[in-house]
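ok trying again, last paste got cut off:
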Amino acid sequence: MNTASRKIPKLPGFHVVGIVTSLPESHGETALNGRCVDNNTPVILCDGPRVSIFAAASIGTATFAIRLGALAIVLASASAAAGQTTRELRWAGDPEGGAPFVQADPARPDEVEGFDVDIAALLARGLNRIPRFIPITFTSLDQSIERGDADLGLSGIEDTPARRAALAVTIPYYEFREVLSVRDADRSRFRTLADLRGRNVGTLGGTIAYEILLRAEREHGIHAVSYDDDVHPYSDLLLGRLDAVLLDDVLAERRRRATPGFTVQPATVAVGHYVGALAARNAPLRDAIDEVLRTAMRDGSLERIFRKWEVWDDDQPRLYARLLAGVEVPPVIGLDEAIGVPAMSRWEAARQYIPSLLRASVVTLVLSCLAMGLAVGLGVLIATGRVYGSRPVRLALAGYVELVRGTPVLLQLFVLYYGIAAVIRLPAFAAALLGLALNYAAYESEIYRAALEAVSVGQLEAARTLGFSERQILRLVRGPQAFRLALAPMTNDFVALLKDSSLVSVLTVVELTKQTQIFATNLGSWVIPGILCAALYLAMSLPLAACARRLELRWKTAPA
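nice, full thing came through this time. structure:
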């Protein structure tokens, strides 16, 4: 076969690797890769991303270009179809959890890094899929996986009996120890949980460590403090708000390297394992993932990942040996009782949690009443100052109102509790009370200012004509009428405050919504906890609304 060069129009997205320019004319066709091809037909061979384009010499350049364009359209359509059928491994994690699990890449903030990120990529390769990360809050991972938001959850997810009962969990890929951290000055005093009677011990909510602390409350008289992240427990430990922190050794050692000043006690409280979580209906995918994990244990892929993130230790080879030998690994080692509530029905579990929900409801109600009372008092003062004050006073109060209304209440709570901790260390409840009161005072002041200005000018002039002072006018004429006008929106704000009190859980205050979240995490479902939580909120808000309506009706029908 003689060959000569022929220029082919450039085709974006395709790689031309060869051209057939001369074919035996006596036969009218030739054998190309075992197939008979007509001399007048261009041939395109695909080899992965490379596309070989062949053109018979008997085809003119114009005809070849036309046919090549038609084939390009066909190939583009086939490529698009192939892209659509490429399967993804959608995996979920919480980027706020931080390294070494999942965190935003400092060099590329729109991407994530961590050993769970590397494990997700390893699993995707083993399954011939493309990994796609879906950010989901840690406390919502189980529920999101069950409803199908992602195929797999990986974010330092702990293996528990409750999780095994509700989801399809993978074999463990990492073994960790629950360890106690104390300030350096207390390393000889606080060695175990039994040494911490009457002390505050913090941990991450919805974890094995939190269940251990709840048990220690009953057995050793400690006070368990729940956090939404694994950073603030250690900062509060150094600030003196906590006396100890119970968390995974992976988290404790990482935080100790970044923030010196505390000691990780060598004693192990319990042993747990990290697993991947899938919906119960995805058991076949879970089995495939287990095989990929076993292969990675044999060939050292997992070890390389954990060494990269400096978390490999002598516990992992022993764990892998048991798993590869087919030995069953229990979820938690070192505890006499099972963690979670898998052995009982959901209604039985609900009956056990009802007392905790009721206590949390009392916290919510007391906090809301105190915050609203303080907000009303401050709101009245701000409204009065904006109506009767001098220009500098009115400008200052207006600036406060706009600042508070223009920033999120969650940010204000963080500033009060964590931001000014170096100057003033407010207790969690006091910071929550002050934060809600200051926030709602701004909104209440606008209601009262509008109500004050709604009183007719004629009444105010008549009072002045009768010799009333401005203070008397406010107390006897303007104030009572303004209060009647403000009652309805003020009641609405109180109901809103009841619900907004759920935000104070970020300050470790365990109110109704936080306790419900803990209940739902341990139960593996939001249905029963959500119903109970809604019923308790209604029980608190409906009587208030009814009382406000009766007052409005009574004042409306009162004789002039």
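cool. Residues 1-85 form one domain. Residues 92 and 134 are 5 Å apart (CA to CA).
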